[in-house]
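Regression test attached.
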Amino acid sequence: MGDLQTRVKIEPFKHEIKQIVSRISRIDEDDLQDHLLIREELGIDSLMAMEIIYSVEKYLGIKLDETLFADVQTINDFFILLRRISGRANG
Amino acid sequence: MADRKLRILLISPKGVFLCRSPEFNEFMNNSRDMQTILHFWSGIGVALPTLAALTPAEHEVVIIDENMEPIPFDHACDIVGITAMTQQAVRAYEIADEFRKRGRHVVLGGIHATVMPHEAVTHADTVVVGEAENIWPQFLTDFAEGNPKPVYNQTDFPSVDMSRIPLPRYDLIAKYRYPVVYVQATRGCPHDCEFCVATNIYGKKYKHKTVDQMVKEVQEVKRLWKYAQIGFADDNMFVDHRYSRALVAEMKKLKVAWLALCDVTVGQDEEFLRALYESGCRILIIGFESISKANLHSLNSDQWKENRVHLYSEYINRIQSNGVGVYGSFILGMDEDQPSTVDETLKFIADNNILGANLSILTPFPGSRLRKRLEGENRILHSDWERYTLWNAVIRHPRFTSEELEKGLLRAYKGVYNAESNERRAHYFRRVFENLLNTG
């Protein structure tokens, strides 16, 4: 699983998360621009969202509460939330 | 005259889909889950892009989806082609009448014109009955020569060979940012459910495009819509097992997310389900119709669904355990429905952790065996096609009033889509994906 604090602070974190989103949504990684709306523009449905959340959990080694994702609108929102949660997880 | 360049406008009219009641609309507008259902059905079918592809290149074709933009009634054109399902019929006729006032030659086709040609001819200069692939080129030739016929019927032409259908002109609808873009690989369904019109349109014979055709179609859609999912608009996609396996193997290489309609027996093949998941298949829309054997008894002449209702749970579990969500289609208002039916259906949906449900009220669409039976029983209350939304009651039920049926449907939707149910489904799919990730 590796050192979480290291992962969340370096750029590969974002790259790896985008790879997960790309694998599940089947959208090319280069097209996953941070400002795009996850549901309306990327067309990520609830099932994809669940798979993304659990895949990211496994990658980061943390537990995510799905209810926190209700306000996530964009890819960038997703990263902000992950940084906040993982930062908290690391004290 | 025959070499004349034609300007052709092809139109998909706005339809009155789902319910017209304010109470239902309020629920729809405030439910993200209901918006997901609309999301599935927001794209147009493949008919108009296919007609455009069948049109010789020297002619000019424009496609309009009225759900996405207003009809340009003053568009300079020679021919207006309109396709409509029953829910769209009234609007299709309004549009047809407007264009005829402007001197355009109007062609009506699609499911509703096919099953109600005597009605369609009163609003059109030409009506196309049945599949249009062989008819459309002949009509264009006849029109260019000044001799278009009032009715063209597929039965007067050779049967449509789907392997000869050209790549649909998706480029003509790429102006619309659909979340799901529909393609079609197969036509027909062997089950001939009483309420369904497909058998009347295509016959019981099942046919399909080649795998190579479908690869090109999917690649074209992916080229034009990088964020859209692919929707297979087939009536029942996996009937031909060898074909399905070959197609799914190719889909895996195309990096697309996709959904399809099929019957429940897809759930009997673990290996195929794994292949579906790996190919990007996210959702299967499956017609369960009812969980009552009594209701299913007369649905198919061979009791196909009645004989499988005891397997529904096993198959759903196997499908979803492989990471593919099930949207179950259930019909309320079938003859044997009881006051407990809504609750029993909700319990079945909850017990089986079904990802989503499309619920509807039994609707006797023209062209169906159901309509003939209910006409004979004097049970059809309305033939105003704008009421044929699937969420409005248009029949007389042995035990329920129309209001009770519609309230029951709304209660059922609220029972499926609420915070508690969503949380339960999320927990279920957490286990599914944890398991897939740990074993994959």
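Expected vs. actual: identical. Residues 7-156 of chain B form a domain with the Rossmann fold fold (CATH 3.40.50.280).
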